[in-house]
Amino acid sequence: DVVLTQTPSTLSATIGQSVSISCRSSQSLLDSAGNTYLYWYLQRPGQSPQLLIYLVSNLGSGVPNRFSGSGSGTDFTLKISGVEAEDLGVYYCMQATHAPYTFGAGTKLELK
Amino acid sequence: EVQLQQSGAELVKPGASVKLSCKTSGYTFSNYYMSWLKQMPGQNIEWIGNIYGGNGGTGYNQKFKGKATLTVDKSSSTAYMDLSSLTSEDSAVYFCARWGYDGTYYYFDYWGQGVMVTVSS
Fold first, then answer.
1. Distance between CA B92 and CA B89 in Å, rounded?
2. What is the pLDDT of residues A33-62, one digit of tens each?
3. How many other CB atoms are found less than 10 A from the CB of residue B2?
4. Which residue of A has its CA nearest to B61?
5. Measured between alpha carbons, how far is A61 from B109 in angstroms, rounded to an integer?
6. SS3 A90
7. Mutation to test the A interface, candidates B6, B108, B109, B115, most A Cβ within 10 Å
8. pLDDT per residue over B65-81, tens digit each?
9. Residue A84 CB partners (closer than 8 Å, separation 6+)
């Protein structure tokens, strides 16, 4: 199975600060059709995960544009440009290029 | 409005089975895949498998073969997951999630609220 390694595991930020989360894959996530099925989800406390980014850099519906995704192959990054209070929670990267789909262990974003 | 409504929390004894439901509304059930996922307390999310609402075709994570069985009832737009031979390792929150399609790309776009399964004697 593909292993996704997220760093850091915990991130402390102040409101307005910009932060980045890394997700590294044990295999390339580029498929034979040229697509890279790497996603980012946010799980707020007590809630279900919600889609932020799909296919590396595409913003999900209704997601604020302070979120952005980048990367290729095995290295990916989620950036939040100006953290807001509603952004607190656990961020997961997920891959769907290789079966079974797998998730990273999560990065908890908390207020400093 | 798309909605995925999961059944309530379950307390089950070791060795028993449990059937979880995910009742959907607001979209054409038979046109989409539904996945089930497991999240143990404070831990990672695992993909169990998926099922196509149109014909019930399934795909499983090898880890959950023999543990989970996915079915659908098209008449009620409901997806089900049977978990068998339960142990403490099956105590977790289970989510259903729609594998959505925007015409070009796929992603989990709608999630159920999750259901806590506790295995205890």
1. 8
2. 999 999 999 999 999 999 999 999 999 999
3. 12
4. A100
5. 9
6. strand
7. B108
8. 999 999 999 999 999 99
9. A15, A64, A66
